[in-house]
Write a structure and sequence with these properties.
- By secondary structure, this protein is an alpha/beta fold.
- Helix content is 44%, strand content 13%.
- It has 14 helices and 11 strands.
- The strands form 3 sheets. The protein has a 4-stranded mixed sheet with strand order 3-4-1-5. It has a 4-stranded mixed sheet with strand order 2-6-8-7.
- A hairpin with a 2-residue loop joins strand 3 and strand 4.
- It is globular.
Length: 343
Amino acid sequence: MLRIHFTGEDLARLRMAPGPDTLWETILSFHRLRDRRGASVFGEWRQETRGRLSGETRLLSAIVPCRGYFPDFLTPPQGPHSLETGLERIRETGPERLHAELSRLPSGRPATGWAASLADGCTTQLGRLAAALTDYHQAAVSPYWAHIQTRVDADRAARGRALLDGGAGELLASLPPMLRWRAPVLEADYPVDRELHLDGRGLLLQPSFFCRRTPVALQDPKLPPVLVYPVTHTQAPYESPPGPDRGTSLGRLVGHTRSSVLHSIGNGCTTSELARRAGVSLASASQHAGVLRDAGLLVTLRHGNSVLHTLTPLGSALLCGGTPRVPRPRQSSIPERSTPATM
């Protein structure tokens, strides 16, 4: 069991990640690739992914075991970022840290080859590692990113509503069943017994599509605390979400781009999130949101340094083919910050 000890200051600094993390999803998906369990959800994904891979599995297996501990430097602290930014931080890992973290592997250290050289502090091998991670990500994660984003956004919406209804304690109590809030301690099913004292640093909650059964925390207690936990899903990841008939009809009415924008608002989002989901520029997302707002299909509220778009009853009814419904809660009650969140 993992026991995470909170103070009042830690509760005040509790925060949600702004979306799925590219490197956490990449590394955790590598666990799922070699795990035979969960065939109904991951079986087809495994088959599709293996068909795209070449030598990446052999290279990454040397430093990422099938289960349990893997080096912290593979998932560096970060805010919203591209894969390239995360890989650049991996390339900046120092030799002392490489040696220390790779020595914690179950075997004591990688046996031979490039990984053994990496464990000896040879930072020139980090370029090869970054290339392998890039190729693996392109095969296993990138084609399914829209589906991953959707599931994580839905989880964030649920946590945001809990926070609005009851504060930080209610948010922690709303987490999946393998996590149990017994104030001031968050208990988690975990492979080993461990105590983590936050000591006023707060905690970043990172929902993950490829995390399964138990949450994941960084091994080094001196690093900014993060808890990666599984989002609830039973559906296999797919590359291209199927479009319902009413979406086609809506596209004919308002145009396919604005139809996509309206669908992308989902549980509520900021303009930057809307641009990412709809696959348009920030300026285009703002323009389309303005048109839809003038038509009475969405409402925009300013919250700190960001704006939050939510559907009106008319916008919801239009998406549902004419059946009115109560507007869904906002994407998250924790607004985007002017500076990136940290882990």
